[in-house]
Description:
The protein is an alpha+beta fold. The chain contains 16 helices and 16 strands.
Amino acid sequence: MFAGLIVTARGYAVARQRRIRREMLFILISLLFTFLLIGSGGVWGRWMVGEGWGFGLFYAAWGIIPVSLGYAVIKRRAPNAGAVMRWVLINSILFLIMALLWIGLYYGLLRMLFPARRKREAVAFLMVLLVGTIMPAIRAKVREFVDRTFYKESYDYSRTLTRFTRALTSIIDYDKLVDLLVSRVCETMRISRGALLLNSPRDPGTLRIVSVRGVSGMRELTFSASGPLAIELVRRGEPVSIEEVERLYKWGAISQEEMEKVIRFDAEFFVPIFSKGKLMGILLLGPKVSGAAYSHEDSVLLSALADQAAITIENIRLYSERAEQDRIRRELENARRIQMGILPDEDPQSDVIEISSFFKPAAEVGGDYYDFVRFSRDRIGIAIGDVSGHGLDAGLLVSMAKSCLFTTTRQSQKISDVMEAMNEMVCQVKVRLFMTFAFSMIDAQKHLLSISSAGHPFPYHLSAATGELTTVEEGMYPLGVRRDISYPIYEFRLGPGDLLIYFSDGIIEAVDERGEQLGFERFEQIIKRSAGGHARSVRDRILSEFDAFRGGAPIVDDVTLIVVRYI
């Protein structure tokens, strides 16, 4: 029964702060007073009433009270005088209620109903069990009565923060939540300063201040989510006081850098915020305006608040992520509609040329582009290109390419002018993108195909007379790589029934269900097997074999195919 006194005396001896030493001294005095009061009551009961069995409870209380107070000293490190007085008051009332119940029932009612001592003690044992079952409810009522009567301020902010904790679930605005969390805690508990540090999905390893109150110039304050202080908070899983942090620093468990940040903020209480078992933030609280220390009840209350705040913050982040994903999805859908609107509505036809095109977009906005320019009845220009990457930037460059092609071909019919203008346009784009591009012109009167390419695959030429499949394998830089570059122009003679097959790399790089690419060789075989008939029939046969090769594998890049038949 002397354990509580010994532990408290040790706490008084090692305490460095003057306030803590005063509170420890008060605890010692309270322990001695309670020790003497309850002990004297037990001795008086035995001498005056004469039944030692019943008043053995008094002797048990005699030893339990200092031991439990000693446990409180160890658990809370430095309880304050107010917490001890509250504890003493609550348990004194409980002790009085127990004593009155025992004296009234055992020495009053039970003596009249059961004169025999053995029967009375047996019934008394059952009565003790009954009282034990209802004691938690009685204790809760006594605690509420004491708090409401003698500790009204603490009782009020406890109720206020409890209601605020329940109301957190209705807040969906992130900035409002973090500001309201810090301000409500500081105002309700009358804390001089406070700050909320949280990680972010983009930088989960750093805790940054997202809201601060009562102090300026602290916005740049950060703590590592894997630093010594964070590790200690995770290990303990509960709020930590400044006294404990100082002790950890003395033992080398807290780094000097983090301790300097703690001193700079003048933090006295550290409330960890966990999400799915991981530390997502810390609520730093400064000293109370009253100068009182943080109690165990404060720790329990703030822990509950932190748990609910973590759930709400996580929900808001998930909601924001989903909202951002929906916004991006809508933007991509709009960009996809724009891209589809840029592409030709129909394929141009003439008495000597058949054209059949196909375009299938991938899941994201891609960079495939093709277009037709009719210079005259017998002269048609064909443009095909592919912007590096996907997304809105690629879609924007495609729209710029169409505009540039339209403007240039209205001023000049030279392939070299088109290539130069397109290259200059891509070079001027601030976003670092490249574009493969090929522009060709079919002159039916001269039976001639003229073409120039900037890194885009040349079309295949299948001769109807010989059945030979040829192409140009000359490689050049894509558009946007260099300004001072000229692209050579190649010419092919065309005969009746010849085919020209334009394509994008979405066809060549397509994979089957085993992950094997289609490749150039397979594509060339498909072209040869698909020859014969009108341009549309050839296109459909090529696409049918292409889909058969892919099987159930998804398309990862835009697919563009243009089949031209020279009649």
